[in-house]
Amino acid sequence: MNRRLLALAGGVGGARLAHGLSSVCVPDQLSIVVNTGDDFEHLGLSICPDLDTVFYTLSGLADRARGWGRAEESWHFMDTLRSLGGEDWFNLGDRDLALHVLRSVHLRAGGTLEQFTARLGERMGIDCIIAPMSNDRVSTRIHTDQGELAFQDYFVRLRCEPPVRAIDYAGADRAQPSDRLIAALADPTLGAVVLCPSNPWLSIAPILALPAVAAWFDAPQRRVPVVAVSPIVGGAALKGPAAKIMVELGFAASVLGLSDYYGARVDGWVIDELDRQHAAALRDRGKSVMVSQTVMRTDEDRADLARTVIDFAERVQVRS
Ligand code: FO1
Question: Does the N-terminal or the C-terminal CB of the chain have fewer CB atoms within 10 Å?
């Protein structure tokens, strides 16, 4: 694609496609904007899990089995914390800790998350733009049978077990998109927006909840196509609670349920070969569809899917 690409991402699946895109795009043609609805203060540190997962994945430092955190990690800090009676439900590896400390120092001194993120990209030798969705605090809140839960309480401490009744994004109504997100959406050379195979409710919705972003997606005169890669394959999420949450919120756990959720905000769907039977129904809804192998086991899979998404995005038309 000769035009710019904006990828919205969060979670492990999102980071894997972002990695694929970064490996096949000209660096200055790609912006990756990352969910910050999962961010929280823990043990006095500012933790931004989705940004860090993108950085570790793109720089080849991620633990491939876990998806989050760094490879070759050690856990002396956690062991010591536990022995001293500290909160040990959220795991911070010894190497990973350095990033949280540096970011916390930067934010406490009055710097923005976007500045820190840009500097980290330079430091880690990542050429494309990586930016948080916002410098303002947006907190994903999970309303469950056990009451309202902070995101990481639900996700890590309670392992996504409590049935979800509703989700909201506290602070989103007042939050401004980051400068790089505003610039990407306003860029006349923007060729497509890609929704990575991230959890729609937990990773993409916080970004779409920013009023300025929602207005861009919903503008009747929008001419830039939005292409989504399904995080649901054969009725299940490859990782994480997407399918469980879909059912709990009253959607079918399938690409059709995803399409019900995103509605007119998505013009084209990349779905897995296992979901080929849904292609006709998506086309009946006016969507363009690409059926492909979407499971990303190797770096080559990531690059192949990225090329498929880019080729497809060049052909997708915005339908109103
Ligand atoms: N996920 C877990 O399931 N357990 C953890 O202890 C954990 C620690 C953690 C530390 C740093 C970091 O950047 C991510 C971490 N994650 C952990 C992943 C994270 O909670 C979620 O994957 C995302 O927030 C959802 O996208």
Answer: C
